[in-house]
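Record 1 of the preview.
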Amino acid sequence: MAEVYLSGKFVGIVDNPAEFAEKLREERRKSALPENINVCYDQEANVVHLEAGRGRLRRPLIIVRDGKPLLAESHLRQLERKEISWSDLIRQGIIEYLDAAEEDNALVAFFEADITPKHTHLEITPLAIFGLITSLVPYANFNSAQKVNTGSKNQKQALGFYSANYPIRMDMDVNLLHYPQAPIVRSVMHGIGDYDQHPSGQNIIVAVMSYKGYNMEDAVIINKASIDRGFGRGSYYRPMIAEELRYSGGLVDEIQIPNKDVKGYKSEKDYRYLEEDGIIYPEAQVREGDVVIGKTSPPRFLSGVDQYRLATDTRRESSVTMKHGEEGIVDMILITENAEGNKLIQVKLRDQRIPEVGDKLTSRHGQKGVVGLIVPAADMPFTASGIVPDLLFSPHGIPSRMTMAHLIELLAGKTGALSGRYVDGTIFNSEPEEAVRKELRGMGFRDNGLEAMYNGETGERFMVRIFVGNMYYLRLKHMVANKLHSRARGPIQLLTRQPTEGRAKEGGLRLGEMEKDTFVAHGASLLLKERFDSDRTIVPVCEGCGLVAIHDDYRRRNYCQNCEEPTEINFIEISYAFKLMLDEFKSMCIYPKMQLKSKY
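->
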């Protein structure tokens, strides 16, 4: 006997749970039960689970009966002639959808040749076990599993041609690659997904070698001539938005060039790009601090007489300005209305991004790295036939990561480029490596991908042969220009008087506990006095009660509120955050007494 649960609720008991589960499956295949019901018999717990809820991940499989798949050649011919459709195959009980629970009761064969009498299902294609983007990785079955996953995630972050109508779209934080190319080594999913319509990478020549140590730790070295010809070039777009909000009492924001008597007026230089309507003109080159949309707002707080005297001098400045570290060119201006009928201004900024040291690049196999050096073409190593690689990849990235597909793609890309064709690298169903090697050998190259290379600076031949080939490389959206940040002095938080956090707020760079340890280890511990005084403050402390006393600057006297009789008061240097903590203690009725000792 076994309990039966429907979507987690107990519904009854059955005598033969295995037969019951099998009977339900048969009824589902005959379309007597809805096709979205899945049944699982848990032998260890002796429980039958029926699931019909939404939001489950389910995948299609071909049903196998008596060691033979139910999908026959006749079905395939009918599909080709469009006499039957996918839903007909499901209705006829040839294909069914399984969820994660029912998969526990199934034995799935990868290929038709692998089927035994014990198998219950067959994969439609082995490619189907991967997601859409993971299946774009060529020769992925030669990689370690975690790197296939990383390669999938990296492809999602690549710059590419994301939309044909990008000039009229107002998307946040968009990157566009200027010269995208279709990959030479591709999988069947590239064709199914129309990848050629929206590619996100470029085919380049890669040599696996080190160069003066500048490509240590996954860094890559790029040929300057390749960048000059357009490798990795892109544009970064972001919108700046302002709207005329309505406030209570009939007050509204106004898009205009602010008058000089407005509270918070900037300098005339900041408003120099604004036209009469208070909006910047297209193709203006703007930098940090420049006003893009001029706007004034009513005062934040109205009190007493002020609310009856709403003159222009009470308005405040609330323009949209370029943030710290930003620059660009005004690409497009959109003047419209929002859902509430308020005036809405959107200004799209464009910034050309040329690859520089620190920008991130990756192959499709999770071999990501930042640009460590950009080398003039004359100093780059070259092959005997005069080919200069676009990128140098460190050989140390291969052994521990076991991304064999990275090397196979270099060989296959080289073969495809030389013979002028695409190479099929579909997972589990790719062109065999041996065939690719044989074709490469037939074109006069070594079948192992190695070539003699020469030092670009001295002209000497390297004593070892270098692995060279063609590869599809992607540029990722993580760029130094978006992350570079430094500060000396700047804004502080109101509560703790410590520097603000983050690049957008012009925040400070935190020297943490571990950074402190490195200074101590290097014998530079006195430097910590300077590093840890961002919120230094001097407070008077009463020697009698040990609490913070009062310094009256106007009367030039110090006294303690707590002690009745005059006591000695000394000024000490502490962190403002510590002073705040003492105040917090006092609010909890804890007496934080400070006992002072002389330094000397």
